[in-house]
Amino acid sequence: xxxxxxxxALHLAYRQENALYLFIDTIKHxxxxxxxxxxxxxxxxxxxxxxxxxxxxxPITPCGEALNLDGYSLVLNEEFExxxxxxxxxxxxxxxARRGGFNGKSQVEVKDGNLYLTAEYLxxxxxxxxxxxxxxxxxxxxxxxxxxxxxxxxxxxxxxxAFWIQSPIGPYDHYISQGGVNGAxxxxxxxxxxxxxxPSNRNSVTQTIHCNGVDDDIENxxxxxxxxxxxxxxxxxxxxxxxxxxxxxxxIFYINGIESARSSFGNxxxxxxxxxxxxxxxxxxxxxxxxxxxxxxxxxxKIYQK
Length: 306
Hints:
By secondary structure, the chain is α+β, with helices and mostly antiparallel strands. It is built from 5 helices and 17 strands. It has a 17-stranded mixed sheet that branches. Helix 2 packs antiparallel against helix 3. The model has no long low-confidence stretch (mean pLDDT 89).
């Protein structure tokens, strides 16, 4: 069976094609090594999720291998102890004007073993009146390894929480990025579904790769959304982990220690050290009145390398 041709005939987006592969893998598992009630239920769930993804573009459940860090060692363990951001290892990133507001140091707080990034309207903000949010990044750049955050994401639509890696030298430039091998943006997770009606849709995150130079189009960024994935519980009130294993050959994404997607989109994985970023993102248009605020709460950021 040529799954690629089936996906092409159905005009599937990549995330929908990925759901098709997962469903077919489930069917193969179903027919291998006998039947069981558990297999039957798993197959029905996979079919429903595949059809939902095709028809309604709904999220799917991560069902890959469990995270295995054999051969890896912990090289960064940031648990946000103390009462202020450790500026020996962190930058206040992109401070100043951004989209519909500003990023400011005032929106970064460390207390009770957590990092708090807050979005709100400030009359007397450091860059003048307006909407403020926050972004921090590690001063040291990393090439390959396993990157993980444990956090609660912010509530409500508009602002969104993210953990991502970005090349410092032009991941969106056709000639610099060279299809991602000389720098890419890897969105380990973005939580952008707070206004969705169904709980399974609200409690889901997207995982995406951006670069340039994959095709002959110089102006437009090449992106691959690997999918919209269910987390399995309340991502706004409960801590969850989101991870990326960046190997020599591919990017492998994880949610709560279970593989959700893998890809070497573009011309291969980035071959240069990149910047690790935690952010509460500002939208272009803020859909709230003054007095509204929302927070991303981070328990830890960890990095492992071989």
